[in-house]
Design goal:
MGS-like_dom_sf; globular; 51% helix; Methylglyoxal synthase; Methylgl_synth; methylglyoxal synthase activity; alpha/beta
Length: 136
Amino acid sequence: MRIALIAHDRKKEEIVQLAMAYESILREHELYATGTTGLRIMEATSLQVTRFLSGPLGGDQQIGAMIARNEMDLIIFLRDPLTAQPHEPDIIALLRLCDVNKIPFATNMGTAEVLLKALERGELRWREVVREEEQA
């Protein structure tokens, strides 16, 4: 499964903690992240992460392009709902693309943990079927 890990500045420590706590699950998958988030995860864990640009500089859009091609299977985007984000339209576009392509999208730690546990139990394998159908 291809998993994108994204976090606003005030949520970066949380996503690093999430990656550390679920490293054994995440290591079995292809990981992608926006710039600083990916670097911090790699520094704190043994996980390999394909890094894109910083979110506001186009990283969200790079991940969005993969979502549009149905090349992502799970998005964890720990958002800071209390701080205005200049790239909010990019974030809304990611949500819309995930809805169109039936891609699970977590925006907070609680939902992220539920999805990672489901991933561990094999409950997201249906994404492989959806991805194959879309590409056929």
